[in-house]
Amino acid sequence: MLYPAVVFIYLGALIGVGAWKARKIKSQEDFSLAGRSLGPMVLFGTLLATWIGTGSIFGNAEETYRIGLAAFVLPIGGAAGVMALYFIAARARRSDAFTIQDILEKRFGPAARVIGTVTLLLAYLIIVSYQYRAGAAVLDRMLPGDGGGAFAVIAVALFVILYTALAGMYSVAYTDVANGIIMMVGIGGALLLLSRQGGGFAETIGKLPPDLLVTTNAYSKLDLIGILLPPFLLLLGDANMYQRFFSARRADEARRATLYLFVGVIVLESMIVGLALIGRTYLPALDNPAHVIVETAFTLLPPFLGAMLIAAILAVVISTADSYLLAPSTALVRDVYHRFMKPGATDAELVKAGRLVVVALGLIALFLAFQSTAFFRVALFAYTIYGVGITPALLAALLWKGATPSGALSGMISGVVVALIWKLGGLEAATGIGAVIPAVLISCTAIIVVSKATR
Description:
- With 455 residues, this protein is mainly α.
- The protein contains 22 helices and no strands.
- It has one domain (2-375): Sodium/glucose cotransporter.
- Helix 5 packs across helix 12 (221-237) and helix 19 packs antiparallel against helix 20.
- The chain is globular and about 60 Å long.
């Protein structure tokens, strides 16, 4: 009973913090941006906890189980995106925007705001949906026979919706600091203990099948681009990252937190890959490779450390789910309701609308959670949709004065359309080329060519 005891204490603490912070919510700026009050360490904690999500703990672990040692390349995409963000963070904070759609409209007009909001909704609700499934996988393993399946998914969804609706960014940001610490302790402690038990990390993974120790044949160059480019593009234009930059006290503190994030992403993502490799050594015949770290917690670790790792996994799931639920909710309230439907809405009305939208979008994500059980490929596709639909236009808005509204809109629409056609039309499977490659090329080309033609 140690596992459920630790987990329920942790979840109860999150709800308690959310209820306590809810008292501070007086305006949309409080609900969405924590009153623009976050210092560099809190900012670093919430940035790290937001980025290290199910795509890492389940998706990258699943891919590690499949390809072995070559999986250490997986953190490169995110780390490269963080380093690029370092040069943008201060400029984003100085914009005094609420959402990235504010930046898009300021440069490219209302249509860019609307298309950006639609793209964000499409990608982020997919991401929230597989966070629900990841949390449910932990509950199913921890409490077998207690409902399971659909019940577990619904339970996780309701918790995330309630937690996010309570206090928005105030509850998310401050509990993310604790979540980040739990991640480091749980994952790092498990990796250290299992490595020592096996005679060292190299000695332990040396027991893997020989083909999993060969790194040269795991990916072709196109495969590697198709895997690393989506997280790079997502992170570079991620509304969650920018929402946290907008929440910083000062521009220089936003930039400093991004430097800390670069180190944190490399360390924590690499530890996840390392732990999945050790799990692959001891658990060579799992029915679902995506659950290798969950199974490691239950079968290979002492109870207390196993419970800490399970709490870390849930911290990963919840911190990511609430962030990816809060961002589209903020976008709908700020970029549609307040901008077009009720410009004169009071602060109280905007906070109420924000909470109602959190509930509505959370339920839509719950429906999507029952449409697929995959993690790695679903995550890549969601990253691709957002990365090609938002990131090129956002970078053009921030960095290129020659970009025009027609160019930006052409790039946003063409990128998403090409990605959907390439993926859903079977071209990805037929050509072996990931949808992100043609989609980002078309998006960037459209922005440049149309902007030059319409300047």
